[in-house]
Amino acid sequence: MKSWSREEISEMLSLYIDGELGEQRARELEEHLANDPETAKELRELRAMKGLLATKKRLPETIGFWTRLSGRLERKQKEQENLLPFPRKYLPIVVSAGALAVLVVGLLIFQQRSSVMQYVSRQSERVQKAMGENLLTGSILPLFSNVDRNQVLQFALFGTLPLDAKSETSLRVDENAERGYTIDVGKKAAEAASPITVDEFVQQVKPTRAQRQVIDSVLDLGRERIERSAFLAEDRGIVIDPNLPQFNRVMLSSITASLESAQRVRLQRFLEKRKARYTIEQLYGKAEPPERIYRDIPPPHRNERFLVVTPDTMALSRLHFDMDSLQRRFRREVEHQRQVSLNVGSFIRRFAEREAAVKKRFSFTTDPIRVVGDSDVLSIEIGTSWEGLQSPPREWMVKPVARMPRGVPRPPNGPSINLHFGGSDSTFYFNLDLDSLLIRMHNEGPGVGFEFFKGDPRSRDRGMRVRIGGNIIDVDSLARAGGRARAFVDSLMKLMEEKHQNVRERQKRNDDDDPLDR
Amino acid sequence: MASQPLAQEVDRALDGKSDEVLITLFQNGERDAFRVLVQRYQGRVKNLIYSIFHDVDAVDDLAQEVFIKAYEALPQFRFQSSFFTWLYRIAVNKSRDELRRRKIRKILSLQALLDSRDHELGSRLAIEPRDNEAQELIASALRLLPEKFRVALVLKDIEGFSYEEIADVLQCEVGTVKSRLFRARATLRNILKPYLEERT
User: A495-508: per-residue pLDDT in tens?
Assistant: First the structure.
């Protein structure tokens, strides 16, 4: 009789009950079975188990499956035909909202007429084009693919994730209690990166085997979330889940919650030694059960709203990415990293070029999001008051250590106007800095065929009249506005007139100095 | 209504056709061919999802997503594998995504379960099952298996696939299938020990 280990016997039995063992080995096993009651018992149990599985209840047929499916397929088909980043039915709303926005800006700077309209419409065209061409037709690249647990842990502790193999460019999220959250993408963002491994963490903190499994699962969930949080639309746009800068703190809180007091003290020591961005707030307490920890980690949502930033503007849009096909397309890590690095670099340069040409920023008083950039790094700032942020899933176990150095200096606040329009799927934001508009218009020169008339304030039925070519449009929204809105518009108009006067004087001085004019 | 009898006639004409013929027709613009494929496989797909999840409410939605994915990918189908293993692959991948989404993570890994020699789990299941309770028992035990072992075991013992077909669905080697099945059975046997001992 042959001698096998228990594991070998179990392995052979598994093949044997499926009829896949092969004749010779099956005979040998049968001989063994006759002399070994334990193996015979195991075989009986395996057969009973197989029988139990084979009799598993089948679901009854459901009615209307095809009807529902064909309805969904039809809707999907229609959505694909619609390349706009919002349902086609909202097109009139967006167009009229856009037109109204143009009118409001026009009213404010009525002497600088047509270039304002061109400016706004060019921007909305560009964002629509970038979204239409890249996001909806598939030339999109996940910013992170094949993220490993070490990198996820590094993200949890420091908020940084490398975008290339040499960590020359990276994404960094930053939290500041006063201002809110920042997402930096680019070269400067890489400076704070500090490599760390899960093994190193485990050696220091000494979690039990079960805790280690929980921590690994938290990191796996984190990896999944990170991979679904940031995308590049070639070099034309960057798409980011606005809740990403909260997520590292969520993960570190979850890891802390899985530990007992003594381990938390060791973790705190580790965080201090590695100069991590966070410090433990609740040092003493019992480890929470794993189910609670998993439940508290927000899942990567489908159809979540993403921030879409192009060199020209920004939109908040409901987008769905097919991660399976995206990851299949970029299975080769090296190729993926090279492309990400190139596209990020090129995108940031394009953004910076625009930033230099037009002192432009997007910032919103009601929805406080700001995008600024220089040639090395693009910075997205999200205010804590922004309603789009998810509330923390649990009581925070950790808090940020200190204010982080910022990659990009904040441009000075000048007079500006926020435009905000969209449907249920997308919202477009334009923050027009009046200084930058003047600079643009000074460079581009005044247009023709576009006139504004401010309505007579005594007449409550007409706010303003606009003539575009041969068409005359009357807008009465301002007439219905309250006194404060009117006063605001009036003061902005006065400011604009002054600024415009200054520009004209400067232009005149320049013209006088130009030797060619002499 | 003339369209109703016409649709039935089209269905009858398509019903007897093989999967390959239906796919070719679909790829050439015959959308009704897809309906026949759905009718042919919806039951099996739903049961597969049910075996993995044991959640009746999730089955219909997930099965719909599987067929939507199949509808989108079918124009590129190149007949390198059979349609049903291809469809099962989509179903398995969708189920895995959903499992991940639901954060169903096992606290107890397989190794921990094998190492512990702890009958706590088994004793939790050591109820005296009547016939209809056997279903509940097997469902609870399957839920405790790690996802990749569970899927292999479901495909083999519930769906009756061959080792080669499972390898095709899971896109892995036959050797991997053998090893997953062996480990799945070892774990399941450990979980069901009290019940099996009584039965055998």
Answer: 655 665 676 677 67
Q: In terms of CATH architecture, what is B3-101?
A: Orthogonal Bundle (1.10)
Are A52 and B42 inside 8 Å of each other by CB? no
pTM for the whole thing? Answer: 0.47
Chain B residues with CB-CB distance to A295 below 8 A: 103
pLDDT, tens only, A379-429 = 887 877 666 677 766 678 888 876 555 545 555 555 555 554 444 555 655
Domain limits of chain A?
Answer: 6-51, 101-137+437-518, 138-411
Query: Binning pLDDT at 50, 70 and 90, where does residue B91 land?
Result: very high
Spatial neighbors of B170 by CB under 8 A, at least 6 apart, are B89, B92, B148, B151, B152, B155, B176, B177
What is the average pLDDT across A429-443? 51
CB contact under 8 A, A73 and B181: no
- Which residues in chain A have Cβ-Cβ distances shorter than 8 Å to B111? none
Please answer yes or no on whether B200 and A59 come within 8 Å at the CB atom: no
CA-to-CA distance for A350 and A344, rounded, in angstroms?
A: 10
Q: Is B155 exposed, middle or buried (0-12, 13-18, 19+ CB in 10 A)?
A: buried
CATH class of B110-199: mainly alpha
Interface of A with B in 141-200 (CB under 8 A): none
Q: What is the DSSP letter of A325?
A: H
Do the Cβ atoms of B47 and A73 come within 8 Å? no
